[in-house]
Design brief:
The protein has one helix at 57-84; strands spanning 19-23, 31-35, 48-50. It is an alpha+beta fold and 94 residues long.
Length: 94
């Protein structure tokens, strides 16, 4: 699928201006796309169009590796902070 010109407003099948969002999947890390602003809500259309060209495979590997390192460092930082302040809960609650 080809990328789209940023000056060309994209409208979804709901006749609304599509929103520009960034994908953070392993297959498309950091790649931007237009999608329906009502995505995930009842009655939303399934409009999807890439904004960016596909990035080279090596770039995907580098980005994904850096994201893994960043996540690991954030977990280590949280662990160190919780040891420093044992009464403090650090992290995300689900």
């Amino acid at each position: 699928m080809e990328a789209v010109n940023a000056n060309n407003l994209q409208c979804c099948h709901c006749n609304e201006v599509a929103v520009l969002t960034t994908a953070w999947t392993p297959k498309n890390p950091g790649r931007r796309f237009f999608g329906c602003r009502f995505y995930g809500k009842p009655g939303a259309c399934r409009f999807f169009r890439w904004y960016d060209e596909e990035i080279p495979e090596r770039s995907k590997e580098v980005i994904n590796g850096l994201l893994r390192r960043l996540n690991k460092l954030e977990r280590e930082k949280e662990a160190m902070e919780s040891k420093k302040n044992p009464g403090t809960v650090v992290g995300k609650l689900l």
